Amino acid sequence: MTTALLSTAEELHARVRRGRRAVVMTMGALHEGHATLIRTAREVAGPDGEVVVTVFVNPLQFGAGEDLDRYPRTLDADLKLAEQAGADVVFAPSVDEVYPGWGSPRTKSGGEPQVRVSAGPMGERLEGASRPGHFDGMLTVVAKLLHLTRPDAALFGQKDAQQLALIRRMVRDLNFGVEIIAVPTVREEDGLALSSRNRYLSPDERRTALALSRALFAGRDRHAAQEALRARAREVPSTHARAEALSAIGESRAAADAHAVATAAPGGPAAVRAAARQVLDEAARLDPPLKLDYLALVDPADFTEIGDDFTGEAVLAVAARVGTTRLIDNLPLTFGAAS
User: Fold this and answer.
1) DSSP 181-237
2) Using CA atoms, how far apart are residues 337 and 309, in angstroms rounded to an integer?
3) Could you tell me which residues come within 8 angstroms of residue 65 by beta carbon, excluding any fewer than 6 positions away?
């Protein structure tokens, strides 16, 4: 197939639509993570539908001192990857196409947009606290691109978990008629989550950066061990007959440990945080060091920290700098009866 490169909404709207349109929004510098999103979009759209990939470096979501100017712009390579992954269209608008009058003087009709989408309290936590205004800019451009591309479905990666949660909330709260589909994080062989910013890392910095995924895996493994012990404890009643039965099969110590863990740390969020924190603390002593921004175990509904009595879906999230590069990662976990 030949992928069309379009730069205006008028060109996109002129295309004949026969089936579902699925959109993948990117800032370019496409990699295998984006390719996975595009291939999934192809499945969602179906053989008669259309897959549109947007490539737009959004100036509104870059704060002071961030890497807007050095953010990689590789449109030719992006077009090739999008075509190989099954995209019908790459929509690469100019800043003025997305924000009319952007380059004009600050007048009543020119300059940066005065009306924007607010991310609300959830947008002020974690990434929002580290990057004030970032999520307002992100939601504003997503809203505009949804209007410009008019999709039936839009796909986003789970690596940006807080972004995904906010987009879902915006679509619900503001009655956008579009389905939001989450696609699991794609990782490199060594565990590092795929990101356009990985290319900034030197070999030594990359070795340090692996602590982000290792910390998440350590938290996940600690959680899985706790849940396995609790499950074993729940399977055997706390009676005299239970003690005799366990003794007969040589598992009295294992059952005692299971009950101790289940009683001492119900839900286990503190232990999960501690396991992840240990890996990050060790990485802080490496050369070059990892400089932690945050480690959080949160409720995906509002991105507030969960307590020890929490049950249900949660997100273990981390952000850190290695050298001048800031990286984020996360893993979903399930606590309590839901697991």
Assistant:
1) EEEPPPB-TTSPBP-GGGGG--HHHHHHHHHHHHHHHHHHHHHHHHHHHHHHHHHS-
2) 11
3) none
Burial of 254 (0-12, 13-18, 19+ CB in 10 A): middle
Q: Are 50 and 21 in contact (CB under 8 A)?
A: yes
329 and 151 Cβ atoms separated by less than 8 Å? no
Whether the Cβ atoms of residue 337 and residue 311 lie closer than 8 Å to each other: yes
Q: Which residues does the chain have with pLDDT short of 70?
A: 1, 64-66, 103-111, 236-267, 337-339
Q: From 168, 161, 140, 148, select the one nearest 23 (Cα to Cα).
A: 148
Is position 34 annotated as part of the catalytic site? yes
Predicted pLDDT at 101: 83
* CA count, 13 A, side-chain hemisphere, 229: 23
Q: What CA–CA distance (Å, rounded) separates 50 from 56?
A: 19
Contact at 8 Å (CB) between 214 and 193? no
For CA atoms 132, 67, 184, 25, give the dihedral sign.
positive
d(CA 287, CA 323): 10
How far is Cα 165 from Cα 302, in angstroms, rounded to an integer?
Answer: 8
Determine which one of 34, 134, 223, 259 is catalytic: 34
Dist. CA 23–CA 50, nearest whole Å: 8
Lateral strand order in the sheet of 179-183 = 4-6, 89-91, 50-55, 21-26, 153-157, 179-183
What's the pLDDT tens digit per position in 153-192?
999 999 999 999 999 999 999 999 999 999 999 999 999 9
Cis peptide before 132 (omega within 30 of 0): no
Token pair for 44: 């969602």
What pLDDT sits at residue 267? 47
